[in-house]
Amino acid sequence: MSLRTTHSVDVGHVEDVSPGSGALPPRAWYASSDADSLSLNGSWRFRLSATADAEDESFAAEGFDSGGWPEVRVPGHWVLQGDGDFGAPIYTNHRYPFPVDPPRVPTQNPTGDHLRTFDLPDGWPAGGGAVLRFDGVESCARVWLNGTDIGEFKGSRLAHEFAVGHLLKESGNVLAVRVHQWSAGSYLEDQDQWWLPGIFRDVTLLHRPAGSALDFFVHASYDHLEGTGTLRVDSDVDGRVSVPELDIDVATGESVTVPVRPWTAETPRLYDGTLVTEGERVPLRIGFRTVVLADGLIKVNGTAVLFKGVNRHEWHPETGRALDPETMREDVLLMKRHNINAVRTSHYPPHPAFLDLCDEYGLWVIDECDLETHGFTEQGWRDNPVDDDRWTPALLDRASRMVERDKNHPSIVVWSLGNEAGTGRGLTAMAEWIRGRDRSRLIHYEGDWNCRDTDMYSRMYADHAEVERIGRGLDGGPLKRRQLPFIQCEYGHAMGNGPGGLADYQRIFEAHDRIQGGFIWEWIDHGVKDERFGFAYGGDFGEELHDGNFVCDGLLFPDRRPSPGLVEYKKVIEPVRIEGGDASGTVRVTNAYDFADLSHLEFEFSYQVDGFPTGAHWLTVPSLGPGESAEVKLPATAPDGQGEEVQWTVRALLAEDTPWAGRGHEVAWAQQTVTPRGPLPAATGTRPAADSDRITLGPASFDARTGVLRTIGTTDVTGLRLDVWRATTDNDDGASWQDDVRNGVEWRKLGLHRMQHRLDAVELTDDALTVRTRVAPAARDVGLRTVYRWTSDGTRLRLTVSVTPEGDWTVPLPRLGIRLGLPASFEENVTWFGSGGEAYPDTGAAAKTLQWHTSVEDLQTPYVRPQENGARADVRWAEVGYLRIEGDPEFWFTARQWTTEQLDAARHLTDLTPGDTVWVNLDHGQQGIGSQSCGPGVLPQYRLRVRPAEFSFVFSTVDD
Ligand code: GAL
After folding, report:
1. pLDDT at 6 over 70
2. Could you identify the atom of ligand 1 that is nearest to the CA of residue 934?
3. Average pLDDT, stretch 447-466?
4. N or C terminus: fewer CB in 10 A for the chain?
């Protein structure tokens, strides 16, 4: 089975299913207080070969001259460096980008030789040993120090350590690492992400003083009935454990119970301690908490938790999976600021520093093993490594490397065996090993719906109806599963515009105890920064097989700007519910935290008239405990709107600075209309006048032959007509494997992107201009009879559009409204009263309705693959440049510097350039968004059914 070579290059390990040789047993990852360490990150000499055996191993010998080699940055992926000279990234979702013939890999196996010399720093102690630690190398490495081969390993996102004390010199040490992109390990690492070879996490030399701590296990449980914590630190090397704040000073292995404050994701109380062995002091950050499966529920400290989570891949648009500490912190801060309380480390253990941050800031963590064999689904899971005993040592190696490295993090409450690896004996072996080693956490794995090895029933992308059935316990399944809690380890596929339907899921999650929440797929778009495209996705590097922009499906854009999806999620999962109370002027406040009371919040109250704030008051809300509610009296009486709409807004704000956001940060909010706006002016009474080529009506002029609007006041208007098309979103298009109707596909089949407008009549009467049309696609008998009725009172122009469907429409419409072109100079000035951010029928939870002002450019949402975006919902009125538009009823408002057709054709944002027209859509209806790019489509209540409709706009000119 192993690779044969004609010369003496040892590459047999590359295709060997074993995890490797030479490394030390896995152990806890920690930073010593006093033992020396030397970071070997930085610039390394680098040589790229096309095959594993192209070059012999002489580069590893002392004295080798690498002067002519270029350099790479470590940590880093070579394919993201070298300006294209070092190959390119490949993106596939689940298909292996090489023939499936385990454990064989292609002859063409990009191989990077990395070289670095180093001196020991002054003062590096003479005695003791030393360990060389690699925190992450993709996918297989062999290591030499000073010419000696010290071992080889696989398991890309796991730490590997080697004892090197006996090889070190004071100066001129030569560290050589040969990294192969493909190896037997690649079969276990088929996660949906870019294939990115390289030494992408830290390389560190650790001094190991005599008597240093080797491995240790902090057991810190919490008894919620007694309010006490029990601490015991098991250590390979005996020592003492002290926690001054708790007056703890005990020997390792000894238990001590004292009153403590527990650790939870909401109240992440950590106690600083120290483990002192003869040769070393190790700082401990201890969080007391107990995780159990009780009453069929996941309970922490006696309370069932509701995960409001995200799936996080490690990603940076320039450095790939090589993340700097600031980026990790930014992720945690962004999560906390968006009410997220849980993270699944999909689909591999993250850099350990990320877990430190989860402990510190408070996030529940599902730590997932570096294991996915999804590509075997292409062959009905035949030869799946997780069901083949030859691979079991590699699987156990991965499980133990995860657990041993990460076991001292209080934030980790669940171990996950991996992702999408089918089912098999290897997974059972992993679960058994984990249970034997750590009984203090639960086990997750989604792939086995019978829950043979797991402590919870987990699914991905189950639709609302199924989740509801599961919540009610009507989903059947084996007895074991029926007794387990349920989580959606992935849902709400955040690809492009969306996901839709989150609020509907949340309602179901909260209605049933058995459902303990979910994790949005996923945290961040994996777009690669690229001069050609802004951000590149699959196919942009000429890959033979790829899955396009399926790699851009996050709540954050690649540069970590929050997408509307994240803002929506924040609102949907807000930990305080504020609802309009009774008519006498109250508001109902409910604490939706699992552990915290509301004393950390203050509540701001204000009225708005026509969307404009009128001054703020404080609302006095009692410090409710979890699950409690109160009716609170409004602090002021509503102003007289004099015909304008009057609403109130309540905002729950942080009352004090926290480590993750400052005082005043908004946690939750609600709005309610108290007095609706008055009716729109009828705008009638003026008689239309016609000459040979022009009709005038009040401030407007029309083409006499076609009845098409030309001007309003001094503003030129182009192309005003009915519009039903939108540049399909990833969720409209749906994934190819979806077996239900994919609207985006049906719409195009039907021809909704090329509707023809037939003119039937232009009629002038005493008080109106009426234009009768039929709007329909070629080759089909369906159509929309569309009547535009124009009236005016002399200064204002009113349009009423009536739409009557004809024929048998079997799909909803993308949108229904009018579009019109305005002068490009109007770009800079847009004001409206409606939702502030992007909103569609099923993504509008976070639509805060106020008066807003911005430019057309800033109304765009920069989805990496351009698509319909940027609609503002519930718009009462909008002003674009000099044109004011009022709607009856409220409308969806969109404006762009390009047409929908241009947006539809674009593959990257760089394909879009502003033209000489601002295109405005005023929509009476929009189809919902759903989540069909990898999940359920649009729920029935958010579909834009084809039926008769009538809607009006009143146009006028804004004064200078
Ligand atoms: C899941 C998988 C994820 C990702 C997602 C779609 O099946 O676990 O890794 O591929 O679908 O984006």
Report:
1. no
2. 6
3. 97
4. C
Task: Express each pLDDT in 921-932 by its tens digit.
Answer: 999 999 999 999
Q: Say whether domain 305-571 belongs to CATH 3.30.70.1350.
A: no
Report whether 489 contacts 446 (CB < 8 A): yes
The atom of ligand 1 lying closest to the CA of 94 is 10
Using CA positions, which residue lies closest to atom 4 of ligand 1?
192
Question: Ligand 1 pocket, 700 CB below 6 A?
Answer: no
Q: What's the token pair of residue 589?
A: 């406040």
Tell me the average pLDDT across 159-184.
98
Whether 574-675 and 216-291 are alike in CATH topology: the answer is yes
Q: What is the CATH number of domain 574-675?
A: 2.60.40.10
Q: Is any ligand 1 atom within 6 A of the Cβ of residue 729?
A: no
Instruction: Report the percent of the chain where pLDDT is more than 90.
Output: 96
Q: Which residue has a Cα nearest atom 2 of ligand 1?
A: 192
Contact 213/236 with Cβ under 8 angstroms? yes
Residue 490 among the catalytic residues: yes
Mutual angle of helices 392-406 and 352-361, in 10-degree steps: 40
Residue 553 CB less than 6 A away from ligand 1:
yes
- Sequence-distant (6+) residues with CB within 8 A of 99 are 106
- Check residue 2 and give its pLDDT: 46
Computed over every residue of the chain, the mean pLDDT equals 97
As beta bridge partners, residue 922 has: 818, 893
Tens digits of residue pLDDT in 532-559 = 999 999 999 999 999 999 999 999 999 9
The residues, any chain, with a CB within 8 Å of residue 47's CB and separated by 6 or more, are 55, 59, 66, 69, 112, 113, 115
| pLDDT value for 738 | 87
Fold of 689-957: Beta-galactosidase; Chain A, domain 5 (2.70.98)
| AA identity, residue 169 | K
d(C-alpha 833, C-alpha 851), whole Å: 4
pLDDT per residue as tens digits for the range 379-394: 999 999 999 999 999 9
CA–centroid distance, residue 111 to ligand 1 (Å) = 28
- Answer yes or no: is pLDDT of 10 > 80: no
Has 838 been annotated as catalytic?
no
Which residues, including other chains, have CB under 8 Å from residue 479's CB and lie 6 or more apart? none
Q: Is the pLDDT of residue 562 over 60?
A: yes
Q: How many CA atoms lie within 13 A of 727 on its CB side?
A: 23
Helix (H, G, I), strand (E, B) or coil at 766: coil
User: What is the token pair recorded at 608?
Assistant: 């708005």
Q: Is the CB of 419 under 6 A from ligand 1?
A: yes
pLDDT digits (tens, 9 = 90+) for 137-161: 999 999 999 999 999 999 999 999 9
Q: For the chain, give every domain's residue range.
A: 12-208, 216-291, 305-571, 574-675, 689-957
**CATH architecture, range 216-291:** Sandwich (2.60)
491 - beta bridge partners?
520
Index of the ligand 1 atom closest to the CA of residue 419: 8
Distance between Cα 192 and ligand 1 center (Å): 6
pTM for the predicted model, two decimal places: 0.97
Q: Is 235 in the pocket of ligand 1 (CB under 6 A)?
A: no
Q: List the catalytic residue out of 57, 280, 372, 420.
A: 420
Q: Look at phi and psi of residue 360 and say left if phi exceeds 0, alpha if psi is from -120 to 50, else beta.
A: alpha
Reported confidence tier of residue 127, pLDDT bands at 50, 70, 90: confident
| Of the candidates 441, 444, 485, 454, the residue with the CA atom closest to the CA atom of residue 290 | 441
Q: What number is the average pLDDT over the span 421-444? A: 98
Distance from C-alpha of 383 to C-alpha of 320, rounded to nearest angstrom? 31
Catalytic residue among 15, 138, 161, 490: 490
Q: How confident is the model at residue 960, as a pLDDT?
A: 65
Q: Does domain 12-208 have CATH number 2.60.120.260?
A: yes
Q: Provide DSSP, 396-454.
A: HHHHHHHHHHHTT-TTEEEEE--SS----HHHHHHHHHHHHH-TTSEEE-SS-TT-SS-
